[in-house]
# Entry
Amino acid sequence: MALDILKLTRRGVFAAMGVCAAALIGGSAANAKVEGDTIYLGSAISLTGKYASDGIHSRNGYDLAIARINEMGGVTVGGKQYKLKVIYYDDESTPARGAQLAERLIKQDGVQFMLGPYSSGLTQAIAPVTEKYNVPMVEAEGAERSLFTKGYRYLFAVLSTSEQYLASAVALAADLAEKNGKKPSDVKIAMAFENDPFSLDVRAGVVDDAKKYNMQIVIDDKLPADLSDMSATLTKVRALQPDVLIVSGHNKGAVTAVRQLKEMQISVPIVAMTHCESGGIVKEFGDAANDILCPTQWAETLSYKDKYMGSAAEYDAAYKKAYPEYQTVPYQAAQASAAVLVWKEAFERANSFDVEKVRDALASTDMATFYGQIKFAPEGNNIAKPMVLRQIQGGEYKVVAPLKWASDSVNWPRKTAAN
# Structure
């Protein structure tokens, strides 16, 4: 797929799309949503703080899709073509700061169409602000299921909700137990989760699925606030010898888990954790990351495609060309790009910049993308796309579950991390 965007350097993409809010626009929310031939989207995003790496993945995904849409002629409304630009502010990975910046984008910069921040916690902080001002927000990184139980009318999320993230790991453990002459109820699970909305929601999903199979949860720990040491949990793992270890602590939690599994020579047949790709555990730990299971919203081997980015594989190639420092494309970037595609189609189906008409067009979204099918429930969550589970095999991420999407067989049991 020939994309001019592939010629852009990372700096070039940011220079073209990642504009500075203070220099861009002023005016009121009533008249600054569109200026000339430009539609402005706003986003408070984590560029510093503990979520910075994921925030940058998200910004990259937004910028890549916007560059592609603009290259294809932009957005057509009322017979006129418009370019897209994003006004970014750094929320510093702090919910209170994110809410403050969302208000600034709406009240001072006049933004009426928002892209989401990174993380469920930041989305929880910003959603009440966008709702207060009747500003639609398409978000790609807030997966906590409670976001969609509050009656928000202007919040739409392209990703699968967080209780689904590691459900396939529990189901896989049950399947492997049966194949090896055991009952799923014999499986012992150890868990360690960050004390944040996303991770606790992942935990709730794991607990629900473990109960479904009557599995035993023998360790249920919270990670320390700084996510830098989980040796207390791993000491219990060594003593109790669970069949499954499940960890969720964003990027830093994933790095800490792999590092200390290696240092402490801990062997668990199944290890599953969130944020493998965005945490860069293959690059940092090499073979010590092998056979770890990683839930993902998206993978380049899936058979998804659209008219903008092409296939999942073509998006993967385009992203790596634009950002060559990446060996694996984080799903956070892919879903950020998908959020931009949703905005383009909503504007064109509404054929208007009237906020309520655009909001209604968003609500009726039902579209195929390189990231998967996107269809919003009345609550705003995407009900059309499943999670998949990848395993690191020889330094590469291979889809192993569910079987419908599997490209490779699972390696089991996992050997000691240092092997």
Summary: The CA atoms of residues 185 and 211 lie 9 Å apart. The longest strand covers residues 80-90.
